[in-house]
Amino acid sequence: APLAVAESGLTATAEDVRRRGLQTLVEVVRREPPAGAPDAATSPAWALLARALDDDAAAVRTEAWKAALKL
User: Fold this and answer.
1) Three-state secondary structure readout of the chain
2) Per-residue model confidence (pLDDT) at position 1
3) d(CA 69, CA 45)
4) How far is 44 from 67, CA to CA, in rounded Å?
5) What is the rounded distance in angstroms from the CA atom of residue 38 to the CA atom of residue 46?
6) Burial annotation 2-26 (CB, 10 A radius, 16+ → b, else e)
7) How many CB atoms lie within 10 A of CB 29?
8) pTM for this one?
9) Pairwise CA distance, residues 42 & 46, whole Å
10) Helix axes 15-31, 58-70, angle to 10 degrees
11) Under a CB-based contact definition with an 8 Å cutoff, are residues 3 and 24 in contact?
């Protein structure tokens, strides 16, 4: 269910909610890293991170890139 919470946050219209959704996603991925190579087609967590990397808001994209580099 934590990925569902992250997805809800990342699909919200408000930028601050999307940033919180990204924070939730990063917490989930750090706690339970997806198996295998990063592939958005086979892992919902990687798909959500890809969505955050392509966000309309520069602040969300920047935080997503920082998170991706640290994973």
Assistant:
1) CHHHHHHHHHCCCCHHHHHHHHHHHHHHHHHCCCCCCCCCCCCHHHHHHHHHHCCCCHHHHHHHHHHHHHC
2) 83
3) 15
4) 16
5) 6
6) ebeebbebbeeeeeeebbbbbebbb
7) 21
8) 0.88
9) 8
10) 10
11) no
pLDDT in tens, 14-39: 999 999 999 999 999 999 887 777 77
* Biggest alpha carbon–alpha carbon distance for the chain: 32
d(CA 47, CA 30): 15
Closest CA to 66 of 19, 11, 28, 5: 19
From CA 63, how far away is CA 11, in angstroms rounded? 16
23-29: list long-range contacts, CB under 8 Å, 24+ apart.
Answer: 23/63, 25/49, 25/52, 25/67, 26/67, 26/71, 27/2, 28/2, 28/3, 29/71
